[in-house]
Design goal:
alpha/beta, 34% helix, Metallo-beta-lactamase, Chain A, 318 residues, seven-stranded mixed beta sheet
């Protein structure tokens, strides 16, 4: 009889991340001068993969995924990276792929690494689109976001950044026609943030999840851990040909794409609930809760304590 090999929890999580992040397509980078590198993951669907880093002068705020969808009449951009400089590089990639007008710039949520490239697209006079709560959330944090990013990016990479709020605020499901294909936009209840928006391309059944889906980069909680876990259960049942995460590879497959993120968030929630029941404090929780998942994620040390703090503040009032 063959012997059994014991697999540690960390080994399992690393393997799950590698499987979920496995490429589902052949990459064809499109470059033009200082254009961002993009990959066409399905006909007319182009994705730029951001770096697993904190914003810095070297990466110019290029830390999140950004996409664009080309119809027969126009283009829609989905997220614009973390600076105007990086946004211009994304714009150059679009111009290398098509000369069709950019009619929509859609932000999946309010975080700077997804919206601070918006200013690069002002000259095209698109309609800026977001969740109906995005404007309020981004406006309330604008001063802090600008100050932090100016310090972290440095003056050259920070040049040109401004707050651009959506003129089309999505409160219920809507459809945008690009010609030959449409995008279905659906606002979500509070999860990663209170202004998450998902987008589905009708022509290819590609689902853009923004930061509702993290891979490799540790998830960051700025909304509700209970809401996020409940939403993951629903999103895993979606019938999508592929999904584009906010951080991670260009495209992934459901339902397994969510497994590592779901496990991480559930571990935090379970640990925090146990500690609260035992009469422990937040100080105790940030030292122990969720640390079994440490080796499975990049940037864990930068964001994990913040995640535990947010979870504790929510769950102590259950």
């Amino acid at each position: 009889m063959c012997g059994r090999t014991l697999i540690t929890r960390q080994d399992f999580l690393r393997a799950a991340l590698m499987l979920a992040a496995a490429p589902l397509f052949r990459a064809f980078p499109a470059r033009a001068g200082d254009a961002a590198e993009v990959t066409e993951i399905a006909p007319g669907i182009f994705v730029h993969q951001g770096r697993y880093e904190l914003q810095s002068p070297d990466n110019r705020g290029d830390m999140a995924n950004a996409s664009f969808v080309v119809g027969t009449e126009c283009v829609a951009v989905i997220d614009t990276l973390g600076s105007c400089v990086a946004g211009r590089e994304l714009l150059a990639a679009i111009r290398a792929a098509t000369d069709k007008p950019i009619r929509y710039v859609i932000n999946t949520h309010m975080h700077p690494d997804h919206v601070f490239g918006n200013a690069a697209f002002k000259q095209d006079a698109p309609t800026f689109v977001g969740h109906y709560k995005l404007a309020r959330g981004l406006a309330s944090r604008a001063e802090r976001y600008l100050a932090i990013n100016k310090e972290m990016l440095g003056p050259q990479a920070f040049e040109g950044i401004e707050i651009i709020l959506p003129s089309l605020k999505v409160e219920d499901k809507i459809t945008l026609d690009l010609g030959g294909r449409s995008l279905v936009l659906e606002p979500q209840r509070t999860a990663h943030t209170d202004n998450d928006l998902i987008i589905t391309d009708s022509a290819t059944n590609t689902l853009f999840l923004g930061d509702l889906l993290f891979s490799v980069h540790v998830p960051t909680l700025d909304g509700s851990i209970k809401g996020w876990l409940a939403l993951i259960d629903e999103l895993k049942t979606r019938n999508a040909a592929r999904v584009v995460p906010g951080h991670g590879p260009h495209a992934m497959e459901l339902p397994q794409a969510f497994d590592p993120e779901q496990r991480y968030l559930a571990d935090i929630a379970n640990d925090v609930r146990r500690l609260i029941k035992e009469g422990k404090t937040l100080e105790d929780a940030v030292k122990t809760a969720g640390f079994e998942d440490k080796d499975a994620w990049t940037l864990f040390d930068h964001y994990h304590v913040r995640n535990v703090t947010a979870a504790f503040a929510e769950l102590e009032w259950e």
